[in-house]
Amino acid sequence: MSKLIATFFVMVVVGSSFWFYPMLPEQMPNEFAYYGNPSSYASKEIVLISLVASVIVVYITMIILSRVMQSKSIYKRFQKSMNDILMVVILIVSASYAGVIANGLGYEVNMLLLAPLGVGFAFIVIGNTIQRFKADANTGIPLSDGHSDLWNKIRRFFSRALFVGGLLLIPCVLFPIKIMFFAFLIILGMTVIVILLGSYIIYKKQYITPSN
């Protein structure tokens, strides 16, 4: 399903680039600053080619990785997870493409809105897919029982932290733009800190025993 969705968005991006090309101005925004407002411009050819190429490169990466994992039985169970993650990347790049096109057509679309939405959805999808990366004796992954147990504990914590962080990031788009920007950075930073500290605490409990 993820590969089908990715294929659809790639076709939409490539096809619409030819449709919108005559309607776009010769100079289009290619960089955004000042809370999401355009700060730099380039020719529409460069902007369109770079955005369309980005989507195609991610899609080709998905196809190649999918075939490699399909051919290797040890990685076969990770195929869907990698496809889901790369599909989210394609959706984010496609949304960036849509925002740039909209700005080029004269609609004021604040690109900063893509930050909490894109990162939030990415965190949620990655958090869900990490649940599939379970280590056990039958996977062929060369881990000892102790390492497998540690990995599974960190994996569960990591996936839950990412999922909750993603859920907290998405509502940031409802705030005024300046508050949204700082709320996004705070939640993103706190998510990273929680993941690092939580993973270390799990590792410490697993391997570092208190001295008598």
From TrEMBL:
Keywords: Membrane, Transmembrane, Transmembrane helix
Primary residence: membrane
Transmembrane domains' residue ranges: 5-24, 46-65, 85-105, 111-130, 157-177, 183-203
InterPro entries xref list: SdpI
Subcellular location: Membrane
Superkingdom as given in the UniProt entry: Bacteria
Chain coiled-coil ranges: none
Chain's role: Immunity protein that provides protection for the cell against the toxic effects of SDP, its own SdpC-derived killing factor, and that functions as a receptor/signal transduction protein as well. Once SDP accumulates in the extracellular milieu, SdpI binds to SDP, causing sequestration of SdpR at the bacterial membrane.
Name the UniProt record assigns to this protein: Immunity protein SdpI
Species the sequence originates in: Bacillus chungangensis
